[in-house]
Model the fold of this input.
Amino acid sequence: MPGSPLLARHAEALDLFSSHVHAIRADQWDAPTPCTEWTVRDLVNHLTGEQLWTVPLVRDGSTIAEVGDAYDGDLLGEDPVATWDEAAAAARGVLREPGALDRTVHLSYGDVPAAAYCAQMTADAVVHAWDLARGIGADDTIPAPLVDFALQEYGPHAEEFAAGGLFAPALPAPPDADAQTKLLALLGRAA
Done:
C-alpha cells in the first residue's frame, strides 16, 4: 500500500507533527498548549502513545485489554524527541506492511477497519500539530491537503466528539473563514 493516498496523508501528518517536535526548545516542554489540560510534553507524550499503540493493535491484532496499561504514564523518558521519532517510525512501518490497512483493529468502542483507524490517527496528528505549534510559538499553518482530510474525517462527527469530551464544543467561524479556521472552530479551537 505504499501508493495509498491515506498512507500519504498519514506520513504528511506525522512529518508536520515531527517538525514541531524537533523545534521544541529545552525551556518549552512545560509550556501550555491549546489543549488546556496538557503541556507541550503531555501533548507529545499523547501522540507518542498513539503511535506506540499501532504496533499491537494493527500488526498483532491485540485488544485494548490485552495491551493493558503498557502505554500509560510518561513514555518520553530522558530523550523525548528520539522517543517520538522511534514511535512514529514504528507506526509508519506497521501501517505500510502488506495488507495492514485491510486488517481489523479492536478499539475500546468496537472493531474497526485498520484504514479507518489510520484515518483517525492522521486527523488527530493534524490537529495536534496545530496545538503543538501554538504551544511552542511556531508557524501553525496546516497544509491544505491535511486540513481537507481532517475536515472530512471530523466534520460528520464533531458533535459526538464534543459530547464525548474529545474536543471542545464547536465555535462559530466567520462566514469568510478559510478551511483551516473552519476546522479549528469545528473542534473548539480559536484560530
User: Anything to note?
Assistant: The chain has eight helices and two strands. The first helix runs from residue 5 to 21. The first strand starts at residue 104 and ends at 107.
